[in-house]
Write a structure and sequence with these properties.
globular; 9 helices; alpha/beta; binds 1,3,4-trihydroxy-5-OXO-cyclohexanecarboxylic acid; TIM Barrel; about 35% helix; eight-stranded parallel β-sheet
């Protein structure tokens, strides 16, 4: 998966829901940390959409314990041809804990998305640029989800998205929460390459997400 154009991911903990996502999504983000028996779900998967496997650790807003089993599960996931990409927190690529998993993915031609989340605030433009440069130096896509508390936070995020895209880096950005919600529809115009939406907004995997059908329509209409 090259992520060279905008990719809409249906975020779900239930792979059997994939047929409902096909009309709108380009891929499924499988939230293994929120799923029951994720490896069995992967083994049974016979859907059409490729999978981005995420096993989000608790310190980055997910539900997976920070142990070897979490990374081992991602390594098992990349053995399936249906898995086109995995998500790893930038922090665990920097610390070295996730490097083996990233290498394992690359050997299988599976893309790596390096993630950064800030659930409190939007870092300065300089810091966001630095984080996304670190992420894109180590992975196929650098993803930054921040929390906007003002419109200027969103403008800063869009500006960094635009700059790094112009410099040839593959980034995915979004502002979580109400204030930044519109960024999910607008960031693709500035180069953001992945958007996430649940099939039903009751199953949102992050604050402020639009449901999949709505995000698909907004992105399509805005990008023309
Ligand atoms: O990292 C991301 C982005 C996200 O947090 C969002 O804000 O849409 C949703 C998560 O499911 C995904 O893993």
């Amino acid at each position: 998966m090259a992520f060279d154009s905008f990719t809409l991911a249906a975020s779900t903990a239930v792979l059997a829901d994939e047929p409902h996502a096909r009309d709108h999504a380009d891929m499924v983000e499988f939230r293994m940390d929120l799923a029951s028996d994720p490896l069995a779900q992967l083994a049974d998967y016979d859907g059409e959409l490729p999978i981005l496997a995420t096993n989000r650790v608790a310190w980055e807003g997910g539900e997976a314990d920070d142990d070897d089993a979490r990374l081992d599960a991602l390594e098992t996931a990349v053995e399936y041809d249906t898995v086109a990409a995995i998500d790893l927190e930038l922090e665990c690529l920097l610390s070295g804990a996730g490097r083996r998993t990233a290498e394992h993915a690359r050997e299988r031609d599976v893309a790596v998305v390096a993630s950064i989340h800030d659930f409190e605030a939007t870092p300065s433009e300089v810091r966001m640029r630095e984080l996304l440069e670190q992420a894109t130096d180590r992975a196929d896509v650098g993803k930054l989800a921040v929390t906007a508390t003002s419109r200027s936070d969103v403008l800063d995020l869009l500006s960094v998205t635009n700059l790094l895209t112009e410099r040839g880096r593959t980034v995915a950005t979004m502002a979580m929460g109400e204030m930044g919600r519109h960024s999910r529809a607008v960031a693709p115009i500035y180069g953001s390459k992945i958007g996430y939406g649940p099939l039903d907004s009751a199953d949102a995997t992050a604050p402020g997400q639009y449901d999949l059908a709505t995000l698909s329509r907004l992105v399509r209409e805005l990008r023309g």
